[in-house]
User: Fold these one by one.
Assistant:
Number 1:
Amino acid sequence: MRVPLSWLREYVDLPATETGRDVQAKLVSAGLEVETVERLGHDLKGPLVVGQVRAIEELEGFKKPIRFCHVDVGGAGGTPSGGGTGELQEIVCGARNFQVGDKVVVVLPGAVLPGDFAIAARKTYGKVSHGMICSADELGMGDDKTHGIIVLPPHTEVGTDAIELLELVDEVLDIAVTPDRGYCLSMRGIARETATAYGLPLRDPALLDVPGPNAHGHPVSIADPMGCDRFTARTVTGLDPEAQSPIWMRRRLQKAGMRPLSLTVDITNYVMLEIGQPLHAYDRSQVRGAIGVRRAEAGETLTTLDGAKRVLDAEDLVITDERGPIGLAGVMGGAETEIADLSADAETGQALGTTEVLVEAAHFDALAIARTSRRHKLSSEASRRFERGVDPLAASAAAQRTVDLLVLLAGGTAEPGVTEVIAPSAPRTLTIPADHPDRVAGMAYGRETVVRRLQQVGCDVYGNSAAWNASAGGGGRETGGQDELIVTVPSWRPDLVDPNDLAEEVIRLEGYENLPSTLPKPPAGRGLTERQRLHRRVGRALAGAGYVEALNYPFLDPKVFDELGLEAGDPARRVVRLVNPLSDEEPALRTTLLPGLLGALRRNDGRGGHDLALFEAGLVFLPRENATRSVRLPVDHRPTAEQLASLNEALPVQPRHLAVVLTGARERAGWWGGGRPAGWADAVEAARTAAAEAGAELVVRQGVYGPWHPGRCAELLAFVDGAERVIGHAGELHPRVLKALGLPARTSAMELDLDALEQAGAGPVRAPRISTYPVATQDVALVVPAGVPAAEVESVLREGAGELLESLRLFDVYTGDQVDEGSKSLAYALRFRAPDRTLTAEEVTAARDLAVAKAAERFGAVLRGA
């Protein structure tokens, strides 16, 4: 919400010395997010005056049309050698949207325009130009419909100071209104907050004399009182189609961030900004019969003001006449009843346009408008306000204000008929202990302060305590019981629904900065859990291995499963869908980390980072079977055990996963030697690194799953709860997946269940024990069938070597002339060490022979060269 300070002063008598920065500080202290204060015209310097074009000479021989104008600027002008003589100013101008007799804005030599653009007499196109005829952009007035010279109304007096006339010097506060503060999307709401912050009275623009409803108004029928509980209709006839919005209204709209269009539309926008009630004006000559409000019929169509033909949903709330829908309620009107632009009759030349207007001021259900706006991907100034809550009692005042302005500025006549359809409703009343804000804030405000602050936000407050009444008669001493306040919430604050909301109002108005700061005292002996320690160790280990952590949003589009090549019945396809997602394009919670991580890799690769190694550890969300619907928990007391159990039963299972993705060079080339591209082995090694931090034995064997290349996919297994279980996969991604996701060639990835890996671990990882005894190394090369996995051979060698084996490493795989066809040679380096003695050659040889014998027994392995 953009708030011009000059407009704000109409409702609050701020001290003349108060600047926009001062008001910003006050409003921020009251809890509003004032992002910036824009100082309009602070670098503008006159003379800047109103002039009248008296003559125009067309200059020829140039690439573009150039005009040499003689402009009367009254007493502000002068000859090139002097000023103030009243002679015509000679000005060169390239614009074409004005003619002789028009009133324009002229900047004279010596002036400075926004952007430190100094104006001086200068020779151009063979003529000397003494000044410039200005456009809106050159004066910093924002976007203009024509992007041409400003043509002022004919009655504007020549020589008038244009800086004051166009209100070019002002300050505008840009306020980010949070969803619970819908009333602040209006000058009325911001003025109320400002008046409260300064302790000054408020001139409420909605306090108008409004005639009561009668039987002579335009007929209105509401079929859905839940969707529309209030509808006011007023009619104005005899409008002058040539009437234009006055300069002050156009400037206020521009400062507030809206573009002036036509008088009638500008008035409805102005009143919306002023009071906060969205309005709509219909060309009454195009309305057929009574106006109705109902839900749309599935398949109905409506062409909205933006020219789009929309197919309506059965949940859409629509405005209708006897033909059908003529507007999308609370979002946008229909094209059939649009206010007609000014035109002229081709034969008579008579001005044509809308001369009678039907004004609608209604109150619609916030949820219905929000869903309609999202469903049609159509957000408007009206829908933004209805979604956040509009004061239902302001509708009749806003309609009256609109009628008054149409009569005043367009020469119309207000018809006596007033239609007002209202669904019965009672004001909302809450009961709150008088000391509740004290207990929430941790400081004593006192009953008087609580009552005063609640009254300042518009609440009616009444006492409800025999104890308080007794204490008042007994010298102000409380004699028992609890002092309670009965609070009637104002109509413009739909967000105040429980005592904590009222407490927040007291606290923010008293100042968040005044709240005491108390550090919590953690109980001794507590720190990170073992699960948290593992996550940190894994993160540090991967970072040390060259990976960069990338945190992604936990949302995905289920279509990504097709791109990942998952089978139709894959458990990962069962997702938890959000009722109100942040983005309709990602409506589900993730069941795998790969989509978000691969998206991050794709973005970085597209921006020039081709050597990438990313990792992420985060929760995935797996729906429960037959989950019950969750209950709404109370906020004023601790939930019961049954309520918490019901809530937990409805929550999805949320294991923590770990994933890595790699592409490009894993080791870069340089003067030190050649580099190495990232591959499937690096993805497997990342899994081993995580397993080492968890103290778990990880089994790696060939597998086939979803996005991975079937010939380069490793299945990761670990013993969980006494049984071997697949906890993840690693390897190179399938070329089809790379193409579908737009990823670089040979991209590799790994994902595993980190919680399952923790369960497979041996508990807290102990520091390694450093032996002082020497190590004995033995190399063996075993010839085994080509289909035998190296990991299984390694496992058998470990088993056979016994306790003396410290480590085992595969350092060579050979297939060629020196081994039989269908076989391969696996060369391992075995390191033996005893913790309490130096091993003898006989002991090392015996351990090695046992390992080889075990491999020969299991796989028929033979020593190469034997």
Number 2:
Amino acid sequence: MTETALRAPSATAPSLICPAADIFDAAGFDAVLAAAQATNKTKGRADVVAYLKDAQIDARGRIADAFRADPFQSRPTTRAYTYLTDCLVDAALRTAKALHPNPTPTSGERLAVLAVGGYGRGEMAPFSDVDLLFLTPYKITPWAESVIEATLYILWDLKLKVGHASRTVKDCLRLGSEDFTIRTAMLEHRFLYGDAALAAELDSKLNTDLFQGTERDFIEAKLAERDARHKRQGQRYIVEPNVKEGKGGLRDLQSLFWIGKYIHQVQDAADLVPLGLFTAEEFKDFVAAEDFLWATRCHLHLLTGRPTEQLTFDMQVSVAEAMGYTDKAGRRGVEVFMQDYFLQATEVGDLTRIFLTKLEAVHLKAEPLLERLFKRKPRVKDGYAVIHNRLAIADDDTFLADKLNLLHIFEEALRTGMLIHPDAMRLIKSNLDLIDDGLRSDPEAQRIFLGLLLKHGNPERALRRMNELGVLGAFIPEFQNIVAMMQFNMYHSYTVDEHIIQCVAQLAMIEKGELIEDLPVASSILEGGVNRRVLYVALLLHDIAKGRPEDHSILGAQMVRKIAPRLGLKQDEVDTVEWLVRYHLLMSDVAQKRDIADPRTVRDFAKAVKEVKRLDLLCVLTVCDIRGVGPNTWNNWKAVLIRALYRQTKRALEDGMEALTREGRGTEAKKTLRAALADWPRKDLQTETARHYAPYWQGLHVTAHVTFANLLRNIGENEIVMDLHPDEDRDATRACFVMPDHPGIFARLTGALALVGANVVDARSYTTKDGFVTDAFWIQDADGNPFEASRLPRLRKMIERTLAGEVVTREAIRDRDKIKKREKAFKVPTHITFDNDGSDIYTIIEVDTRDRPGLLHDLTRTLAASNVYIANAVIATYGEQVVDTFYVKDMFGLKYHSESKQRTLEKKLRAAIAEGAERAQS
């Protein structure tokens, strides 16, 4: 029986991150094993395990130190961890055989040990699993069973996570034919120790009896597995990616190698180049992406001390620091790191497309015969061909002779509905230098580019493919800066370039009438007709200046002056696009951060917009911008606010600003209430309409007026009454409270709501002329939804107990307002502003800071302690950032004009924020 024992790598072996002798002292272990054999089994085994534990700790420390010193050297690092594991497995096996000697083994008592999966491939992160296959010729004998068991127990004592199987060659073939996961693991087997002839037999049988002739099935299984994995992880490049399993991650690269090895028996990815599956340049990109992803994964493991694969926000900061990224040019180091990450993930996607298309002609199943006979083949223009239902280039030289073809091909792809063939993609990527100033200023190029946006109904597809191939960044050089750029916050779900493409996709869907029910106002605006060139270009460029120290809206508007003419827009169109980019956040900010029931808010917004044409464009752009942030960002609450602001502003612009007055709104509101309460006695109606001040009538919808009227009608002198009602139109629960007025009641209510886990999205407080306070809060649960009807009784009970003083709010909140670990990495500076011009009767205090549970209660409690009357609060949340806006008066009913009073209030608010932040971080 021929056996092979592992020893240090030869001089010709691939390099390790640190010397082999520093990883494992083979001679030292030999001495320990020899001493163990000379004593009793129990003590001998204990001595070996103790030695290996110390050796492993020391080796892991040396490897980690060497890697931290050279943080991008991932291949030598993964090889070092593999070598250490080989040494530990070898030591465990030799110890097991020493404990269970068999000097005269029979032919059936042969044993080979193989590494499989990632361990077999020789790529191990610090805490990767150790996957072993114990191979025997026939049924496992008692001796082999004893050796295997003893080996595993030693490895488990070393705290290694071992996946293992004991099989015969026949078992391997049978199970591999039934399960592609097992087949893939065995594809990457590597002989470690024992009977080399038995391992060679398995190798031969796998190729002849299992792999050969099943290439098509394997490819299709791996593609199905990849699609399912991407669906689980998120198809687009999400901001907290899984380095191993996510789109563009290590598993995608490994799948390419598996397929190549299965079909061509290659042992290294470099062997795919001579086979024509990769060019030398593409293989270079493959290696770069693999190195970067492995470095990221290894740092993740080391920083968490466990096999972590998800790049959560907190870990992104730590990994970026470990890899040497620093802040520069107004961007955090973590943002630069994540941009590099997404660029590599995009490269993996390109390589995958190229590789698989090369294989499909030979190995993937053809369409059914009838489908091929009756399916209409698309007719392509001269210069193009159709290869496997993809748009290909007929002649490379002819294609490149006309630079315009670098844009024409995307136009033809949209016209025919076909995907572009990877060979054509290769040609485009390698000739991006042809896209020069001459082409950018060519009127025909401008026509083609605008046509991609406007003519074919699917601009998203053209933009995404142009972006992936680098054409978009070459044609609009300013765009290249935001490609794969991550915005390090919890609000945006996509990179900046992907966000822009998502926005354009939203606009296209509205135009096609696919969102009429969800977006009636935006749909009607587009149906009525707008300048589509202006709208699409404004969306394409609205975030073009992200990632720079300056305000991206102001800088972006300046950049538009140069870019928009290059896209073929006329001067008046350029002016409009410039205005839209400069103010693309205005409507969203006013709707979400200001009280749009205040006529002054709408009048000021109308003065800024000036004309209905601009209002229409800004409204549609705002809707697309919010919906393009992420799949769950747009909701009914935002929809109601945007629609209300649009309709009121349009009325002001068409009928004159005098249409917006407090008196006029009050008269209309009272008239509407009388109609809604037609069954009430005239005297009761007069009492109700006379008891409220003017702001009450303009600030609430008639449904809230009706609720408050019913609550007030029979209220006792010291009674507290409430009404909790789902407001489905706004994706929130409306909570109405009526009670005798006294200082600090608003803060007590925010505390009560915080205790039940309610997020306040809007709040209004009004005092009546007869001494009551009417407070209306719109609240959502932790997931941003209205509270379910079944939860309302418990909600009511807790609020009642809190208002009755049975629960001390501040003490109860103290243990609840903790920030989750993954969210602690975000830095949100606090900005506090005082505005005396935005409202006729209130000072507007805007607090822009880090969101956390209990924040609103801390702020309102601080204001109440300073004798500040809070008329209403508007809450806008953007991921980890929140903007709480308060409409306030002082105790005499006056605005806060004094700068010294403003500074004093600001100091107290900042202290409350700092105290709460310290509590939340602990």
Number 3:
Amino acid sequence: MPSPSRRTVLATGSALGGALFAGGLPAQATAADRPGGTGGTADPWRTVLDDADLVWQRMPATWYEGPFLGNGFLGSGVYAEPGSETRAVRFNVQHSEVQDHRPEFGSLFGLARLPIGYFTLEPVGTITAVDWRLGLHDAELTGTLTTDRGTLTVRALVHTSRSLLAVEVTPSAGERGFRWVFHPADAISPRAAFKPLPDGYQGNPPPEVDEHDGVHVCVQPLLSDGQHVTAWRETERGGPRTLYAHVAHSYPRTTALGAALRAVRDGSLLPYDALAVTHRAWWHAYYRKSFLSLPDARIQRFYWIQLYKVASAARRDAPVMATSGPWLEPTPWPNTWWNLNVQLEYWLIHGSNHLELDAVTRALGEFRDNLAKEVAAPYRSDSLGIPRTTDPHLVNGAAGTLTGYGVGIPGQDPPTPEVGNLTWALHNVWLSYRHTMDESVLRDVLYPLLRKAINYYLHFLQPGPDGRLHLPTTFSPEYGGNSRDCNYDLMLLTWGCRTLLESAEVLGIDDELAPCWQEVLARRVSYPTDENGFMIGADIPFAKSHRHYSHLLAVYPLYELTGRTPEERALIEKSLAHWVGFEGALQGYTFTGAASMSALLGKGEDALKYLGELMARFIQANTMYKESGPVIETPLSAAQSLHDMVCQSWGGIVRVFPALPAAWADVTVHGFRTQGAFLLSAVRRGGMTRWVRLVSEAGAPCVVRHGLPGAIEVRDGRGRPLRYETVDDGTIRIPLCKGESALVTAKGDRPDLTVAPVTPNGTAPRWGLPA
């Protein structure tokens, strides 16, 4: 029998209560043990991450159950080979840049992401047991396959910068004859398994398999010109054998072959351990940008898995995440979706302090010229739009259709003039600006694009008999039917005009359109409501089960309506209850939206209840999510719902622990990024906030609702008293310059400023497939 593996030691030895980090909380905290602590590792990140590792002691059968590896480009999901569950394990090979390039067939066929293929690890014997661990800290899969002929010890990673799948297998004597086999996929849109093919559409030619000086290649030519190539090589160094694989895509040139060969030749010169050094270093630094611990062990583990997942699926220079991230599977949605999915996928990067993953701001800025082509020709000189679906370059493919554009014309185009998607996507860009206060984001991307997105609305906004400004019929995503004064569009139009005016003031721009934006805010029709709350629009009540909160965007995430008055709060509560009260069409992100709206209202118990519904109904064994096909936005947005319970910073106020349930008496947060570019650290113990610390990165106005009871005092980074102004009960304004910090405590209190993982309320099973 082999000696106990490292993963076994970690599985039995982690202790949440014993990992601490100490001191005055610099931007990068240092690890230390508190005297009298309960032992365990000195590194708090290592403690929570090791505790969150996914384990498999049963063989995963599907994408929804197995381990997943990725770096925003190359992705691999691991599970049993369907139909050969005891004979082979599949390592998928997919890539977020690999797509077709035939726009005449639209974004879901002609521009769709294309499946690449997969390797099977085929033992000599019959698989009898599996013992795997996906280690979050190192972003590696480790473990063993046991067969009736011996064992295969496996280590696998997708290298963070080389985009190389490396799988090291150490066989026992009886398994030395194991093999790897590559299975190319048909290069056809995955939607073909769900919907009829467009007239004239055909799949791409068969791939060409070859060998170049010991490197195997599978070259997939494309009918549109260009190619994608999978290259791989297996090397043996003593007992272990290591598979190295890389995918390259080129269009319209055929340069992918050379790129793939170089990547594999260079990468395979390094043994697995050498590759792992730089890979692990990136991931260790990544996690240390923020910290969150709460007493619900299952949810805390889920949260850290989402941080792993988002960095496996997203990078700033990678394509904006498609519906299934880099892990493409058969799906009716084989591209990027802009009427909810993209927005939800990226929300958690702000609070968790991971703006290095912000592909949305980068892509909208880089490919803005394509957005003009998505509106009808008469509007292209001054307007932009984004249709429901695009490829990574923001191309929809409608330019080759009879209409010649992707975004419909309000009041004219049947069936779905879905106009608001670009404005909603730009709200994500605005969040990136607000969380960094980087004016280049405002000046170079948000302002010019939002100006033209709102301009498209202004072409159609007209006064009615009541003297108010009205929108002709547009479409509220997914509800069905067009309506005048659609709330989806009115709410986004309102946010857009307000944001343009505020941005122009920040940038010092005297914009000739400012009077138009002011007139919209003063004269636009009220949001349509009835006895049940917000309607879909003036012509359509909310009267059936509907998973999408398109009619509630002013509440969340726009925070245009927040319950400032009793009447407004009652309207929000009524609308929320009516929305989730219809069973039948509710999906996972229904409950993440409901959780965040409840958090806005300070209802922590309700927020936790909705997250519980999500976990019980929809979240799969490996924390993935499915509807008609694999999609990843919902688990990622659940992490944002947790953020909304722990901290909110809309409206210029940082709210600390605004919506915690009673069961979460202890919570620790560190390095949490808020609007205004503050880094928040705070500790709650025994149901009371003990201290709050804010570090200002930009010198923005600092207003904090700290939540400490009774009299307080505020000190700077050297422990000296700081002036502050009381705004209202529990809210203070602190004058902080760039680089300065403020510590808020109870008056006369000198609490221990050590930040540690909190003790869980109870036991919970690990994610994955534990025994």
Number 4:
Amino acid sequence: MKRKFGKRPPQPSLSGLLRQNLTRWVLIPSICFILLLGGYIAYEKTRDFERRNTIIAQALSKQITAHVANAGNALGSLVQTMARYDEFWFQTMLNSFLQSAHHMERLLYLDADGRILASAPAHSELLSIRQFIDRVTQRPTVISTPIASPTTHDIVVYMGVRGPDGRVLAGELSMTTFQHHLEDLLPTAEGTVALSDTFGNLISHPDYKRVATQDNIGHLDILRRMHDRQSLTAFYRENGADFIGTAFKIEPFDWIILISRPVEEVFLPILGPIIGLLSMILLIFALFVTMLKIKLDRAIVTPFAQFTGFIEQAAKGRYQTTGVHDQSFAELAIIEQKFDDMVAQMAQRESEIKESEARFRQLVETIREVYWISDLADEGVIYVSPAYETIWGRTRQSLKDNPESFFLGIRPDHRLTVIEAFNALRLEGVEVDAEFLIVLPGGRERWVRAQAFPIYNDQGVRVRLAGVAEDITERKAAQHALLEAKQDAEAASQSKTEFLTNISHELRTPLSGILGMLQLTRESRLTREQAEYIDTAISSSKVLLNVINDILNIAQIEAGRLTLNSQPFLTHEVLNTIYRFFRHNAKSKNIELTIETESDFPPILVGDEVRIRQILFNLVGNSVKFTDKGHIRVWAGALPRRRDDGTVDMLLMVEDTGIGIPADKLDYVFESFTQVDGTYTRQYQGTGLGLGIVRSLVRSMHGSITVDSEEGSGTTMYVTLRLRMPAQETTPRTRRVAAHSKPERTGLAFLLVEDDRVNQMAISRMLEKLGHHVTCADNGRAALDLLKASRFDGVFMDIQMPEMDGMEATRQIRTAPEMTGVADIPIVALTAHAMPKDRDAFLEAGMTDYLSKPVTFEELARQIDRLPL
């Protein structure tokens, strides 16, 4: 394949490169610096012109203002004087005043009706004054804009004042006098000064012809930009010439003073030195470059030409040193020395590359994995390691001849997925990591894991593909064995859970009948001794029920099905329940039981109240069991740290003076089904599940439990639970029915569906004693028949029954067309299935609520009160 090379642009010579760099980094910065310096000087010159002219304009403004004020004061004094004289003296007084007031050209004295009483010069007609007569007040004021006098045709301003007798004295204030006065005040070197009104009409100007013709300069840029400004310095153009000027507004009269000079007069003095300095720099630079070029040719260009020959030889692979010679400058000698070192390193690196290539080939040809490289352009295989023949059972040459044979060896049901992955690698550069089955020529199958990735050139373009493939048949077999072992373990765990659940059901069913009959017997007429026996039997049954509950809790924890139900609860209610439950047991053993809380302990928290009560039951129950004298102290408080997520750590401490725990048994007591004393002669009975359950419950609430104990001196348990603080408006709903209290609802008709005769008798009698009517059915089918024939307020439904279970019966009640009339009747599951998942299943089937056996009078009463009747 022929490669086309583009024509390379000509490279600049060393002298040309140096000239370019000198121009770029020396000449141009120098010129820029001088220009910036000139600009700065021009800027400062402009600022100085502005400051100086502003001061002059302010002074001229004060002079003009004072000039007009003096004229006004003189007119005021004159009108006061003339009011005291007869008309005979009017002409004389006006003539005398006019001779002393050179700035006044004409005077006119009028009566209150506007008739002329006297004028100076005499017999002069000042007709234009009549249009301004109404503006005259008792204070001397300017009553007209600058206008041409009808007599002298000079630019004047009329001033007037009204005397105490109502007569008016008016005069023409000469603007020509202003111009001479301004020119006298303004230094000759500071330029020219002109005076105009806000519309640009000239009042005073060095060229009086422009004033006489009332020339207007309002078109000048400096005046148009004045607006509401007091002063402005700017450049402007007039009659083809450029000027710089300062305009200043005279506030009392809305006149504008313009002081200006031609631009060349201001800036020419600084332009000459800058041009001369630039010319000198350019001349010096040209001489310097010429001398430098001659020196470079002799000292650098010729030695570098010789050095280039050695570089060309090195580029052709002829690694020979230059043999450092004496050079005209040390840098070239250093370069030649570095070049010799580089040549030596290149020769050594080429040798190392060859050695590395040999080692790489030895590695890839001896490893068990297949290593391959392919070209992305023609998809041909560049290299494949010998392990390909071992794993695929085909020759390497066959793969090079037909790269598609790699995919043809994959089992058909895996082939399409692998092809799609490699297409994504070719088109998008997505790396491949796939596991698939290949079929060997003999028909055997083998698991292979293939990894492939793109290779990029220096420009970031994908040019090749590379990959590794390994035989993972043995690993897959091991994974399959582990999976089967895991499934067996999960099946064993499930079997254990189901066994414990069934045991719980089978124990709860007869226990429900026992407790029910005992409670009914307790409500009958008994002797004191008989009542004591019944209470003891009920207490023992509750202990047995606690054992069953502990077994279920362990089953839930080990199966990972322990769930928490967080709701707002009253903390003192939980603690009072613990106290009421254990106070009689503690009192019977002469043990002091106290429950304390810190002063600022939150009255309401959000958490699983039932599980928190269960933790305290186990801890306080253990203390009561293993303490024979002394005291038991329960303390509750909140740790001081409050988190941003609204949670707080609740600290519970249970301290007793019991038998204590040996130091080597502290961790052992938290294991399930264990006790410190495991002998047949142990004094304290129990299943050993309590602390194991407590530890699991505490961990599920993101808490911790620690124990401080000394054998023979007592034990202190510390428990922290992470709970949430309630919202401000949250208030837990508490509703309790005490034993033997009168239920809120009586006289209801219930259908009890129960196949066990003892439970049927016990529960029906309990409902009757609560004041309700009960009809019994042995199974779900019988219950459906009774619901069709009679009216009931609610149904208590057992789950496990012959012919039709409670779940199916509930579904029939809710959905069957013939049961439409009772489809919304409340149905309470009354069953020995007590796992949380069972409750969820019952509610999903359409049941209204759930009660686990055995039940008490209080639970039945609370449940009936909650029913939506």
